[in-house]
Amino acid sequence: MVAEPSEPRGGSPPGGAALPGPEAPTLAERFIRAFRLPYTLACVVVGVVLFGIVDAVLQKASETSDPSRILGYVFDPVNVIVYLLVAYSFYASRYMREKLVEAKSSFSALLPDGEAGFRKAFAPVSSTRPQVLAWIAFLILLLLATNASALFYGGQGPVVMNGGQGSVLEFVSGIFSLVTYAVATLGLSSVVWTYSSISRGIHRFSNSSLSLRPYFEDAFLGLRPVGSLALSLASAYFGFIGFIVVELLISPGSPTVVDIIGVGGFVSGLILLGLAMFFLPLRRLHGRMIQKKHEERARLREKLSPVLQEPAHPMAPREIGHLFRLDMQDRKVSSMATWPFDVGIIGRLSVIAFSVTAILISRLLAIVLKI
After folding, report:
1. How far apart are the C-alpha atoms of 243 and 35, rounded to whole Å?
2. Hey, CA dihedral for 237, 239, 243, 245, is it positive or negative?
3. Average pLDDT in the 84-110 region?
4. Could you give the CA distance from residue 371 to residue 365 in angstroms, rounded to a whole number?
5. 85 with 244: CB under 8 angstroms?
6. SS3 at position 278
7. Is the backbone peptide bond immediately before 158 cis, with ω within 30 degrees of 0?
8. pLDDT tens for each residue of 238-281
9. Where do the domains of the chain lie?
């Protein structure tokens, strides 16, 4: 296993002069690193074993001493998906931040103030306070969404308090479930926070005075790394939502209409947030690329006009070399991109997003109509 490079801490520098850069680990990463294991292995230990299987064993053991029932509950497919979701969440947040750091040189080359401008645009990614606030907000929203029926109709309390109230084991199970819920929401909120904060950084980057490359050197004007980063972020984010949708699809329960609205609304909100955070930060770059293509087309028309006039303009150049250069220029201008990535990828991303949404809606309708 290759040793991980040391990174600056997430706290602010002395005097509070600047925010930590995106090279600093996020709150979720710092939690995982505390286990002193290779990062991927630590994600599995935390999400699947410690705050997954161990928590499930404690919960079921507080209700029954039958080993078969305990094992059946621990390895129930719905619970397994939840374990994997938590492990994936801790991994995905680090993956997204590392993709950003990998793109640092490409982004810095386009900014007038270089690496300093890059750090300024993406500094909030590793800032501690907003991550804590996002964690708390996500925990509250998820509690409300998953316990909507109990809150609306009255009845069983929040899922994290169902450990029991009798024996010591039940008490320990209830406390451990609370800790597990807090850890799980740290991982889940970290995915949403990292994705949204990097997307806002792309928006700030797009509003800067960029030194775009000439179109004859690069059809994407040097902006392809921006599109590649946005696609990597979106892939990791929608993978996270995919786990949630799978968990909803295989869940055997019969939720109430209030539960459906609560959970369905929560997941739909995550999907809409993902689409918005993908397209909106790139709109400014899209506009610049269109404008640049129009400008180059206008210049080309001025050069082609005397050549293409009938009868030929007396000042029209007749050198074969000049005509060849105009033809090459026309090809280059025509191939100029208007998005910082291949347009076909947008279609594939949209299909994935809408497919996930359609599956979710069909599942909710099937539950409501009892099909």
Report:
1. 25
2. positive
3. 95
4. 8
5. yes
6. helix
7. no
8. 889 888 888 877 877 666 666 666 677 778 788 888 888 988 99
9. 20-369
